[in-house]
Amino acid sequence: MELTLQNVRLTNLYLVFYHIFLLFFRVSLWVAAPFHAKARSWVMGRVGIFKRLRAQISPHDRVIWMHVASLGEFEQGRPLIERIRKEYPQHKILLTFFSPSGYEIRKNYSGADWVFYLPLDGPKTAKRFLDITHPELVLFVKYEFWFFYLKKISYRKIPLLLVSAIFRKEMSFFRWYGGISRKMAARFDHLFVQDPDSLALLEKIGLGPISSVSGDTRFDRVAEIASAPSTIDAVEQFKGSNPLLVAGSTWPGDEEVIARAIENPALADLKIIIAPHEVSSSRLRELQVIFPQSELLSTFQTTGNSNAKILLIDSIGLLSKLYRYATFAYVGGGFKQPGIHNTLEAAVYGVPVFFGPHHQRFLEALALLSQGGALALEEGNDPGKTLGIHFESLLSNKIKLAQMGAAAREYVHTKQGATVTILDFIRKKWRFN
Hints:
Helix 5 links the parallel strand 2 and strand 3. This protein has 20 helices and 14 strands. The chain folds into 2 domains: about 40-215 and about 415-430, 3-Deoxy-D-manno-octulosonic-acid transferase, N-terminal domain (Rossmann fold); about 230-415, 3-Layer(aba) Sandwich (Rossmann fold), CATH 3.40.50.2000. The two termini are about 45 Å apart. It has a 7-stranded parallel β-sheet, sandwiched between helices. The chain is globular. With about 425 residues, the protein is of the alpha/beta class.
């Protein structure tokens, strides 16, 4: 009894801190909004949101709701949204984002009937949101845990799934202070995780019976994109018969390494496409200073400059299509950033993948390395020069280039199927027709 009472007290204390966090988060964004574009989008996107929800969603609509944090999680959830839309045509799809970087890019996504920001968590907010949207099925993707939303969904006995989740031992769920995190995880009817290590961790905290390994739905998404490639005339013209490096989602640390790599005189014929993580005018100007031989895609589409050696992508949404033209790919985020971006978008095309040292938290990066489909650079010892040597080696050894590419493609194709697994579970567990 004492232990139970202590747990209750701890949970109540954590809830106090959670309320404080929500208040601090909201106030911080309102203060930052006049000076920071993303904060302003976050705040303004939620102004009048309940009025807009009520105006668009009828009490008679049958709603399936998917919530994602940002663009990466959207890409994970997208295959499931599109399969559910076909499977349950009598339902309408509500898609919500937490982050402006996802919402602003996908607010016109045609695969959902409605796309909104998710109002910030809170007991009254969650109740009001659910009263208006009245979903019959709720899917959260990967890392999204909002206490009051999960509590209200669970109390209303709405089927609730977490998909493509991944857990690590350092996360709060597995710490002595993680009572509120464990309570949130237990609200789900089922937790679909990416790997056996995540399942083992959940089993240790008693959530094994509601958890299973489904894999990562991103594999299904990138395979779908690769199966229906689209032609980009300007890129084909730019590449010609030259070898091509496609560097995606790059940050300044990555670009410094690439600039050093292409100093290698053996790479004189190499063409380079750089799709930076941010495409603001200031970032593009920075890139034009680092790469004097560069030209913006929008300009090249007009001029067709045959002397351009480096193409800077100044628009969003092309990257997954660009990799199909690559001889090899560099995925950004591994230098001076917390982690690399999506390696699967390149690997699915049978392209050798390079990235920086901050990749240990990414299962697919580690797997690509172990299977010979990728190479990781190290900090220190001139990583740019090392990268240039790797490029030179692959260009002079077509067999090695083909072997790396085949290993990358094979890894992606053997990991497909998570979407079907989750959809089969939904069919067997609940009847929505």
